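Two records follow; treat each independently.
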Amino acid sequence: MKLAGKIAIVTGGSRGIGKATAALLAKEGADVVITAKDQTRLENTAKELRKVIAIPGDIRKDVDVQHVVKKTLEKFGKVDILVNNAGIFPKIKPLHEISESEWNEVIDVNLTGQFRFTKAVIPHMMKSGGRIVNVSSDAGLKSFANFEADAYSASKAALVLLTKN
């Protein structure tokens, strides 16, 4: 019970890395809020993990981000841990074939969404301390021949630098 009494928010918590992270945080004693835009999948994950609370929200919408943080604070009074995990991986195609809307969607989810959640929790974490974990990728650290996921790589590289600052 290393995390007993700690409150965590995990974005993209309904599947994959986010779901596994939420399960581990709960196992270690934290109270965990998971959020994702697919409400059905989110609720199914909450039922499966049992020790987590689901609050639906779209990381691309500031009003949703504020709602998740507000509901977490109403329920628990604080936020100790934020795991910025939500992300998307676009269709693989050369840079010159990516539309501006595809580019913007990847940047909005993989970078700006993390900014939104981080900005929303920092004032509350400054009062009691806390930790923010940003989930990135090797694609944000180095280039890979013929990878052709430039928006994804750019979003993850920017997230790495945001984290270091």
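The next record belongs to a different protein.
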Amino acid sequence: MAHHNLYFQKQGLGAILLLDALHRLYQASATVGFPLVLVDAKDGVAEFYQQYGFQPLGQYPNKLFMTMKGIAHNIAP
């Protein structure tokens, strides 16, 4: 679970960390073989993930997913 400090907000660090994590997960998926990434976003944060290609999971607006194909298309080099 992430801890939020107001000092670090609005500096783009969340995006940097997310993109790094997605890149690492994409690389690991070649070995481990998992098909997607799930996120359980806090209230009001789902839009942040949607900017990067995550999609809502059914009727749960705070649960989002992105397939490895989506990561390859949207994020991975």
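Discussion point: The first strand starts at residue 36 and ends at 40. How would you locate this feature using only the token line?
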